[in-house]
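Dear colleagues,

As part of the handover before I leave the project, I'm documenting each prediction I ran so the next person doesn't have to rerun anything. This entry is a single chain, and its sequence is reproduced below.
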Amino acid sequence: MLKGKKKLIILTSICVIAVAAAAAALSVYMAGKNTEPAPQPVAEVEATPEPVPTPEITPVPTKDPNEGKVKSALTGEYISKKRAKQRPFAVIINNIEYANQRQEGTSQIDVLYEALAEGGITRMLGVFQGTEKIKRLGSVRSARHYFVSFASEWNAIFCHFGQTSYAISKIEELGVNNLSGLSAIGGVVYKRDYSVKAPHNVYTSGEKMLQGAKKLGYSTKFNEEKMAKHFDFQEEDTELPAGEETTYVHLPFSDYSTCYLKYDKEAKEYKKYEYKTKHKDHKNDKQLSFKNVIIQLVKEKNIDRNGYQHLYLHKRKGTGYYITDGGRMQIEWRKNEEKGTMCYYDMDGNVLRINPGKTYIAAYPTSRKGLLSFEDKTDKKTKAKSKKKKK
């Protein structure tokens, strides 16, 4: 009995030990299965910053100073559309010495002609577009037939106070719309200034001319097709490619009337002088100044005992000079009144290209071509005297 209990105790102990061993083995197995490897140290890497996008800069467009404007058919410069739609006016300007010293509004003229009248005096024809800028213009004098012809080239409304019989015939022949101071419309268009001696005291204004034209039923709208093609304009200021240097122009129309022009290098324009003094617009004390100078050599003669002049223009051609930016070149001209054509050409036969700006045109007699000069003799004498003093 005792032996049997010992066996049971031994057997039980063996079972307990076996179970414990199995449990321990299972524990080790499970521990090995769930064990993760120790984390390995990671090398530090510098972070690359994300690129910051550059903001797009929208360029501010430069405002075009000529936006909303168009080029003038008279000067090639940019003007308002309103002004460009207005028909040109052409006004006879008194240029006898007494009147010259009292001229007003002449600096507002776009194209200025000068030609001989009787007695060695010159008269001028001022062509302009835009009546609103002309506050007072004059003094206005009587018409000569070749000035009627010049006005017709621009399809301008011709303004004058008096006329010769030759001028009346030319007005009728060419069908030129005119405002005569001696007609019923005279009181509307012209007014005398009694502080100035007659007959040099007649003045007008843009408003008065426009009013007169409307009363007579003239069209005041610009029609470029009816205007002669005188020249083309350069896109911008351009010096003559091979012109002769010309900083002085001497135009002795007669012993009484001599004008000359001096080149102003800073302004790049020719300043006009007459009667040995600055030729001024006395309304604003401004000297007349031009970008372009054209000398149109024209055959002329006296046609009656009054000394009235005749310029050979109809169905004619001739030569002359174009002067700008301190240079000079030879040109040709051709005109036909019946066809309404008048054009200047370079010596290769191309339409003359001139610079944008105001133009002075001297209808200068061929008989006095030998007296025409591009040399300032006065300046030469002054320099010679200065050299003598230094010695």
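The radius of gyration is 46 Å. The chain has a mean pLDDT of 89.

All the best with the project,
I.
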